[in-house]
Amino acid sequence: MIGGILLAESLHRLGVRDMFTLHGGHLDPLLIGCASLGIQLIDTRHEATAGHAAEVIGMLKPGTVGVCAITAGPAFTNALTAMASAYANALPALFIAGAPPTREAETNELQGGFSQLPMAIPVTKWAHRILSGDRIPDLVEKAMRIAQTGRPGPVLLEVPIDIMFRDVPRVLFPIAETPSGPSKPSPSIPDAKDFLAAIASAKRPVLICGTGAITSGASAAIDRFARLTGVPVVTNSKAHGLLPHDHPANFGPASTLAVLNATGAPRPDLVILAGARAGLLLGGRSHAIIPKHARLLQIDIEASEIGRMTPVELGLVADAAETFEVLGELAAEQSWPELADWRATLAKAHAVTPFEQEDAVCSSGRLHPHHAAKAVFGAISSDATVVVDGGEMTAWCEPLNRGSRPGSYLTAGYLGTLGFGPGYAIGAATARPESPVFLIAGDGAIGFHLQEFDTMARHNLPIITIIMNNACWAMSKNGQDLVFGKDRRVAVDLCDRAYEDVARALGCDGERVERIEDIGPAIARACASGRPTCINIATDAEVVHPITFGMAGTDPTKGKIEMPYYQNEIG
């Protein structure tokens, strides 16, 4: 028994059946051990992709931890972005990194010369170097437990190559075949009753759900709570699919509340945040989504999130699923006010489609991005998992989502990473082989990891990649135009490339689409083929989505330059 084999056995004992990786000599004992135990190895062409694939597993399979193994030095630094993404998005993942031998420190050794742990500490919940083979099992178990308890997040175990290859004569602290995890925190009955009383007193309550509702597995409990109370539910971009798209309580994305603000319709008088953090995904300090004077209730497993940016009336530091189980039981014991008028107001806002009346083909001869996205989502089944990777393009897609299972709509989240899409799609196809997986990416975002078409082909992952190709970095270009004028664009133009040819060269199928009526049939052919496919859709670059005005930090009526992306004024 050598260290890497013991590491593989420890992972298998803890329930790991898939691992994302990119080969490095430091990892050979681990990889060979995994293969001998039946752990599926999905090897990618870039470590960031392997990390992103592991990152998303906790969204797709609540209660599990994705695992990524990378070698030392540049492999570690390549994966650092995925660690930071998992940390920002509160997703559980175990990163295993190789390292030079401990005895070779300060010798200008191969893939060494710097300390990996200090780089990882700011973007992980826990980072540790294993220095003795007999501690491998219990430290792996500890890492997995830390990743998924409390607020979930990534952890790092660094395993030097001499520990990987060295004999392990004994195990100091064995781990159980089925280790028991700690119980999830639940609210007290008095606190839960106060919470329900506050909700019952509101005339226009709304429940906003986020990542915590997904990773805790709260979908069924929230379904029951919403049916009992009549409280409408919206989700931030990390939680779409929490309720089926046709669920009577599902009023779409949180941006539905921004439509109320823009149209002057009545707005919520009470907002409940459930595993949804205040900040970027909920309008920041703009109050476009959460009204400034609305009463605020909050449920979060992380105490530091309660009251972030806005004081709360009541806060429950608890697991979302456990909380809604308790709230549902208590809600069934009382009657609830009629909210028909309020729900009708939200339904009207949810139905707003400002670009529906515009021509599907722009003056350039290319497709309007709204109509192209509408045709794409019209051809995607509700059981599919959809990954959306891009800037302005994501705003065109979000209102059209029809996902009907938790984790069915996956976006970059708080770090704003571009190029994460192939990794998320590979993770989704691995975790959910029974369901179709779509990656919808801008032509800018797809350029980060085009080589992963090869990974999809080698591992027979029938991912359908749809590229909205407008030959530019749309949000950046449009932002520059708004702030500085169209004659001063810099570093935002791309070329209209044949990405479908790249996909074919790397073992996938591919075709180009230039007409609206051809989008649906192209997607149908790709689904029927059972093969990874790239569909390259020519879209127009000059149509500006309204979200860009906010992201660019400019209001045409003000006539002045403001700082892009962040809050300029506190209102």
Folded structure, characterized:
There is one protein chain. The chain is an alpha/beta fold and 571 residues long. The chain folds into three domains: 163 residues, Thiamin diphosphate (ThDP)-binding fold, Pyr/PP domains (Rossmann fold), CATH 3.40.50.970; 162 residues, TPP-binding domain (Rossmann fold, 3-Layer(aba) Sandwich); 183 residues, Rossmann fold (3-Layer(aba) Sandwich), CATH 3.40.50.970. The protein contains 23 helices and 18 strands. The strands form three sheets. Strands 2-1-3-4-6-5 form a six-stranded parallel beta sheet, with helices on both faces. Strands 9-8-7-10-11-12 form a six-stranded parallel beta sheet, with helices on both faces. The chain has a six-stranded parallel beta sheet with strand order 14-13-15-16-18-17, sandwiched between helices. Helix 11 packs parallel to helix 13. It is globular, with a radius of gyration of 24 Å. The chain starts with a helix and ends in a 20-residue tail after the last helix.
Distance between the termini: 63 Å
Report the portion of residues in β strands.
15-25%
Tell me roughly what share of residues is in helical segments.
25-40%
Gross CATH architecture of the largest domain: 3-Layer(aba) Sandwich
Structure class: alpha/beta
CATH topology of the largest domain: Rossmann fold
Q: Name the overall outline.
A: globular
Number of domains: 3
CATH class of the largest domain: Alpha Beta
Average pLDDT reading: 93
Quaternary structure annotation = single chain
C-alpha Rg, in Å? 24 Å
- Unreliable stretches: none
Helical stretch tally = 23
Number of strands: 18
Strand order of the largest sheet: 2-1-3-4-6-5
